[in-house]
């Protein structure tokens, strides 16, 4: 579904209007830009009251996601309207262009902000966000599906949800997770992690008294999405989410050449941390190339 706003929000089409990708793209091509003021709070209220209703195509069992695209600071209270949506379990992604207020974007967006807040200098640069934003959105929906497949009701109460996920000690193959437990300690935690560009999700189940985890055997130079879900006897609390990239593998350094003869050379180098083998390639340099 899509709505445009200025001082008067306008629904361009509802969630139930189109059923194929091509139809949506054609509707986008025919869309006329709506100029005017920037009443973001009013727009978010419009989306809640008009677009996220069953008669507009919103399915009760489906995850509710709102992507806010704005090029200016709101002229009304966007934070209050956004909080109303978030309290109802609706996640907000905020994308700013040109003169958008980044502090306001961070107020409006859902946690974690490193996944839900984006800002670019001009409209053509929005294309650079498409890949990552698509992966993040699809991952969020998959996580929701995984939770629902366990046939456990979801509880969004803050007293049942952990906070303050921190990712530290990142190496090429590992990272360390810590978080603050909820007011009511859970029975267990379910930690799900996988590469943002696609991959089989892996999960770890921890006792509810534990609030940290060391992840190992990761792939180097890879962006990982991490989620922490508290599990109670009858409900699952809201999950914490974070994203970070593993470091590249360390490289050998200080290559030196010695003991030259007509058909041999000796090479030496400083070791690469963690390397178990080395592959040495050599070939004759083309004429005129540096030795």
From TrEMBL:
Positions of the VWFA domain: 1-133
Domain Fibronectin type-III: 161-250
Record-level GO cellular component terms: collagen trimer
Pfam families: fn3 (PF00041), VWA (PF00092)
Keyword Secreted belongs to the record: yes
Keyword field: Collagen, Extracellular matrix, Secreted
Subcellular location: Secreted, Extracellular space, Extracellular matrix
Keyword Iron assigned: no
Predominant subcellular localization, coarse grouping: secreted
PANTHER family: COLLAGEN ALPHA, COLLAGEN ALPHA-1(XX) CHAIN
Protein name: Collagen alpha-1(XX) chain
Gene designation per UniProt: COL20A1
């Amino acid at each position: 579904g899509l709505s445009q706003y200025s001082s008067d929000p306008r629904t361009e089409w509802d969630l139930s209007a189109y059923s194929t990708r091509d139809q949506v793209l054609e509707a986008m091509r025919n869309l006329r830009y709506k100029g005017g003021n920037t009443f973001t709070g009013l727009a978010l209220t419009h989306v809640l009251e008009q677009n996220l209703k069953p008669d507009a195509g919103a399915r009760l069992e489906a995850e509710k996601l709102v992507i806010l695209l704005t090029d200016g600071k709101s002229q009304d209270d966007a934070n209050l309207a956004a909080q109303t949506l978030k309290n109802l379990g609706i996640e907000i992604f905020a994308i700013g262009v040109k003169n958008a207020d980044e502090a306001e974007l961070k107020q409006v967006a859902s946690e974690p902000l490193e996944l839900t807040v984006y800002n670019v200098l001009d409209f053509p640069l929005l294309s650079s966000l498409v890949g990552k934003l698509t992966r993040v959105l699809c991952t969020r929906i998959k996580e929701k599906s995984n939770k629902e497949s366990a046939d456990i009701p979801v509880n969004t109460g803050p007293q049942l949800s952990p906070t303050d996920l921190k990712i530290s000690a990142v190496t090429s193959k590992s990272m360390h997770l810590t978080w603050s437990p909820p007011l009511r300690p859970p029975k267990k935690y379910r930690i799900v992690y996988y590469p943002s560009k696609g991959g089989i999700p892996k999960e770890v189940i921890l006792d509810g008294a534990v609030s940290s985890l060391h992840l190992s055997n990761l792939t180097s130079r890879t962006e990982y999405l991490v989620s922490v879900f508290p599990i109670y006897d009858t409900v699952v609390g809201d999950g914490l989410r974070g994203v970070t990239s593993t470091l590249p593998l360390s490289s050998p350094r200080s290559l030196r050449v010695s003991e030259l003869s007509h058909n041999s050379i000796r090479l030496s180098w400083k070791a690469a941390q963690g390397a178990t083998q080395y592959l040495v390639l050599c070939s004759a340099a083309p004429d005129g190339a540096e030795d």
